[in-house]
Amino acid sequence: MKRGLIVTGGNKPSRELLFREIHWADIIICADSGFDSMADHRDKIVLVIGDFDSTHRREALEKLDVPVEVLSPMKDETDTEMAFLRMLKYELDEIHLLGGMGSRWDHSLATVLSLEAYLNRCKCIKMIDEQNELQMVLPGTYPVEKGDYHYFSVIPISDSVVFSTHGFKYEVSKLEILRKKTRGVSNEIIEQNAFITLHKGTALFIKSKDA
């Protein structure tokens, strides 16, 4: 199984989370300021990509002997999207993204919604921070490992989705929920190895816990 990690801007991961994900990954791509978290952990970095905000910053990266791709600030894509496009060339089984959620709602929402573009190119893509694990999915059956998480939410990306659960506090069978409603929020995982079947539609699965 081949695994990739993208580290981008936004909320910085904790030291513990960062170390765990570095150990998990086979290759790492940093999107612009995401490299700030990785400066002391360069072994698996195959690329640092971004428009970068100064010549000084680019020169500093080049001195560290890491591959750098400088993008035009006039580009149509965000640095995070470009990092995904470069990562997909490695034909990975799973990709994790650290960062991507921060004070800029436009960037945060765009990053989440852009995951739909990669659904047919990688089996599993997850966004992860200290309290949440997010994955966009197509129809299929998915294991849900409880771990330290407590809550599980299903957020429709398509107009509606149909799903069934096993191992949750509120079990449902072929329940249809609409994107404009909040019915799928805050179920609770009660078994260590639960699972959920998405019968129809495209959805976000979000595992979460309180801070």
Count up the domains: 2
Spatially, the strands of the biggest sheet line up as 4-3-2-1-5-6-7-14-9-12
Radius of gyration: 18 Å
CATH class of the largest domain: Alpha Beta
Number of helices: 4
Shape: elongated
Measured between the Cα atoms of the first and last residue, the distance is: 32 Å
Q: What portion of residues is helical?
A: 10-25%
Structural class: alpha/beta
Low-confidence stretches: none
Largest sheet: 10 strands, mixed
CATH topology of the largest domain: Rossmann fold
**N-to-C SSE series?**
EHEEHEHEHEEEEEEEEE
Averaging pLDDT over every residue, what do you get?
93
Strand content: 35-45%
CATH superfamily of the largest domain: Thiamin pyrophosphokinase, catalytic domain
Work out the number of β strands: 14
The CATH architecture category of the largest domain equals: 3-Layer(aba) Sandwich
Q: How would you describe what is shown here?
A:
Residues 140-204 form the Thiamin pyrophosphokinase thiamin-binding domain. Keywords: ATP-binding, Kinase, Nucleotide-binding, Transferase. The chain has 211 residues and is α/β, with parallel strands linked by helices. The protein is built from 4 helices and 14 strands. It has helices spanning 15-24, 55-63, 79-88, 105-114; strands at residues 3-7, 27-31, 45-50, 68-70, 94-98, 124-128, 132-137, 140-145, 151-156, 160-166, 175-178, 187-188, 193-200, 203-208. A 10-stranded mixed β-sheet has the order 4-3-2-1-5-6-7-14-9-12, sandwiched between helices. Strand 10 and strand 11 form a beta hairpin.
